[in-house]
Amino acid sequence: MSTPSHPLEFVQRYLQAVRFWLPKTQGQEDVLSELGEDLRSQIEQKETELGRALDKDEVSAILKRCGAPMLVASRLSPSRYLIGPTLFPVYTFVMKIVLLWILLPLFMLIVGPTSVAINGGDWGAGVLNTMGHLWFGWFMAAGIITLVFAVLERTHSQMGMDGKWDPMKLPPVPKEERKSSLVGTACQLVFAVFGLAWLLLLPHYPVLIFGPAAALLKAAPMWQKFYLPILLVGVVALLRPTLTLAKPGWAWFPSLGELVQTGLSLILLNFIIDTAGQTAGGEWHPFVMLTDAGSNSAQYAHVAALINVSILLSLIGVWFGLSIAIVIQAWRFLRAIRKRSPASRQPAALEAH
Q: What do you get for the CA distance between the two ends of the chain, in Å?
């Protein structure tokens, strides 16, 4: 952990630590601004008494008297009932980690596909079973976590954190988030142009996707009804960096553009996978087919079958990846909107020890 080069940098690190434990729904900036002014006032008062600037150890001592960041955040937060203000920030943090970042990916990536396989490839039954088990797992995990923290609250198990924390070990303040890189956005625009041109040329030049195998393989008929929607997603991918470059002041647009593009891709991919699924006759819609030159070869037919299975598995993997990505991008977009919305003024008082 790096040590600040300037003693007042301790204050910025301290405010960053308090911000982490404050509820996201309240006016964080107002609370932190008032807290920062209080700390700087204490430092200035001490410097006036000593007639010199304070060193790192003296600034650290002032922060230590104010209290551990988590405890200070709890005093600045609204009162809770079942779990007290000291443990509530930790309680919500553990709840998010367990429910959203452990159980949800576990059920989506492992339990879900396993349930579909057990139900003989029936996606409907597999999804319903997975959702039922997920809700039960969430309920059990939330109940156990709540019970543990309620017991800690009743037994006053605070683990002496207020006396053991060290201001010297506070993590540094990261650099402010930069707006979308001009070079990065320009590269996205170039790739989008080439990608859209590739899609437009693809129906006329199959070699662009099959390479030398174009003499034996061709796209299946199912791609005809998805070609225009795929082009639409390509156009969205082109417009997103174009508007980002044209309107650099729209700080919210990059996250919204990513969210819209991922959402459209996810919807389109879902229809493609569903179309490739079993029909009433028990047949699969292939992604690629043999041309006339290779249709009489059993070996080529086996190769085409392996390619179709590989494409299907790859699309399912991409579907799960996009499902996770859209949740993350939605959270980033909401955070960007929340940062731009006016924060409600909420008075806060700092109780120094």
A: 26
What are 146-201's pLDDT values in tens digits?
888 877 766 654 444 555 667 777 777 666 544 446 777 888 889 999 999 999 99
Query: Which token pair is 318?
Result: 């991409």
Tell the residue number behind the tokens 């997603």, with chain if given: 233
**Sign of the Cα pseudo-torsion (130, 131, 136, 137, in order):** positive
Two structure tokens written together for 269: 């991919």
CA-based torsion, 89, 93, 94, 95: positive or negative: positive
pLDDT digits (tens, 9 = 90+) for 25-77: 556 677 788 888 888 888 888 888 888 888 888 888 888 888 788 777 767 76
Partners of 219 in the beta sheet? 288
Tell me which amino acid residue 17 is: A
Has residue 244 got a pLDDT over 70? yes
Enclosing H/E stretch for 288: strand 288-290
Looking at the DSSP assignment, which residues form a beta bridge with residue 218?
Answer: 289
Q: Are 70 and 87 in contact (CB under 8 A)?
A: no
**Quick one: tokens of 299?**
């070996």
Tokens matching residue 315: 């699309």
Per-residue confidence (pLDDT) for residue 99, from 0 to 100: 86
Q: What is the DSSP letter of 155?
A: H
Beta carbons within 10 angstroms of residue 46's beta carbon: 16
pTM, to two decimals: 0.49
Cα–Cα–Cα angle for 186, 192, 197, nearest 5°? 135
Q: Which two tokens stand for residue 90?
A: 């930790």
